[in-house]
Here is the input.
Amino acid sequence: MKKILVTGFQPFGGETMNPAWEAVRRLPDTIAGASVTKVEIPVVFGKGPEAVDKAIDEVEPDLVLCVGQAGGRAKITPEFVGINYADARIPDNDGNQPVAERIAADGPDAYFATLPVKAMVQAMAEAGIPAEVSYTAGTYVCNDVMYSLLHTLATKHPGVRGGFLHVPYATEQACHLPSSTPSMSLDMMARGIELGLAAAVEHDQDVKTATGTTH
Ligand code: PCA
Here is the structure.
């Protein structure tokens, strides 16, 4: 049986919940015949990636997906690339605020996700769930986790595929945000992540749909 490791973040930035973990913990325990292990990780530079590494050593997964909140986005967004750069606009949950720093002194500038991001988006969109590929995971803890995950997999676990996905605010969070703020129900996010993971299990290679962005 294949094994999937999925992580979701703790709340941060003054929020009392993080829809990433809330959606991840709603996932079924089996997706496309693969077992699913769910782990909550801290919104702290360095410690988030360490928690992912520890879970990889324990679970020995075939596939890893880390999930974070991108408040203000309207769709579920599988990330195409993680960059070797940390630049925090707000402190993390331990009060760290790295500015213009490399994540791995010896690492390449960037890694592309090794999950089939287009196939994942297609699977979600076919089910009526808003989704699109994103070409930036930002420069905060989510990018730190994505870049570090791909660095770890490339250097220590060749053959294990990994990637990152951002979710919008949950509808519950949007209640206390301006009326134009996009949001999505946690059930829809969980269903989208489930369909995306099933597509990742089923596609070793990504599909070639023209879903790139012009800007
Ligand atoms: N989102 C933040 C960090 C944790 C989370 O859920 C980010 O996008 O960097």
In short: The radius of gyration is 16 Å. The beta strands are 3-9, 30-31, 34-41, 63-69, 77-78, 81-83, 110-112, 161-167, 169-170, 183-184. DSSP finds six helices and ten strands in the chain. The first strand starts at residue 3 and ends at 9.
